[in-house]
Design goal:
The complex is a heterodimer. By secondary structure, chain A is mostly beta strands. Chain A contains no helices and twelve strands. In chain A, strands 2, 5, 6, 10, 11 and 12 form a six-stranded mixed sheet that branches. In chain A, strands 3-9-8-7 form a four-stranded antiparallel sheet, with no helix packed on it. Chain A is globular, with a radius of gyration of 13 Å. Chain B is mainly beta. Helix content of chain B is 0%, strand content 52%. In chain B, a hairpin with a 2-residue loop joins strand 5 and strand 6. The radius of gyration of chain B is 13 Å and the shape is globular. The chains are: A mainly beta, B mainly beta.
């Protein structure tokens, strides 16, 4: 079946540090891949997406590349800010139109 | 409306009572999804509607859970005889295109 595995948190970094949150997936066919973010007290928001192999999704300085050979979609940002503190969810969507989420990674950025 | 609206935002109920959670999707969005987010857990899929029909109910945890959608718009998730393990944030999302999911802010349910 379809599943998403992402690194457990919490992840604590200092401001301006480099961020990587690992995500790997298992799926039949060719799913679309997503990163969602949940800021404190807010709902889930789509951060970025990639719909086919080698696509790179990017938004707000975050990037993730769809790697079919390693079934991965790792989230990266070169210089994090305190305002990036949130919970990040990796997700996939296959043809049946249902999104499968990972368990989320809580990110704390220290000033 | 401008976004997905869920009500109530918070609900505290006694064990054994029934609760109804409401989701008002974005106008024109044909697909509607319910998820559950428990403390320390990811998002658990519950049910999916396409129009008024539910092609995928596979995530409903027990027969105490049911959902309906009328007029291709508002959906209600009903939990009968609530238990403490039902305490969670219940999230609704709607979608029109293949890739666009918009989530509501959720209903935080606490069963005491």
């Amino acid at each position: 079946g379809n599943s998403v595995t992402q690194m457990e948190g919490p992840v604590t970094l200092s401001e301006e540090a480099f961020l990587t949150i690992n995500c790997t997936y298992t799926a039949t066919g060719y799913p679309s891949l997503f990163w969602y973010v949940q800021y404190p007290g807010e709902g889930l928001q789509l951060l970025l997406k990639a719909t086919k192999a080698d696509d790179k999704g990017s938004n707000k300085g975050f990037e993730a590349t769809y790697r079919k050979e390693t079934t991965s979609f790792h989230l990266e940002k070169g210089s994090v800010q305190v305002s990036d503190s949130a919970v990040y969810f990796c997700a996939l969507r296959n043809r049946d139109d249902k999104i499968i989420f990972g368990k989320g990674t809580r990110l704390h950025i220290l000033p | 409306g401008a976004g997905v609206s869920q009500s109530p935002s918070n609900k505290v109920t006694e064990k054994g009572k029934d609760v109804e959670l409401r989701c008002d999707p974005i106008s024109g969005h044909t697909a509607l999804y319910w998820y559950r987010q428990s403390l320390g857990q990811g998002l658990e899929f519950l049910i999916y509607f396409q129009g008024n029909s539910a092609p995928d109910k596979s995530g409903l945890p027990s027969d105490r859970f049911s959902a309906e959608r009328t007029g291709g718009s508002v959906s209600t998730l009903t939990i009968q005889r609530t238990q403490q393990e039902d305490s969670a944030v219940y999230l609704c999302a709607s979608s029109f295109s293949q890739h666009g999911y918009t989530f509501g802010s959720g209903t935080r349910l606490t069963v005491v």
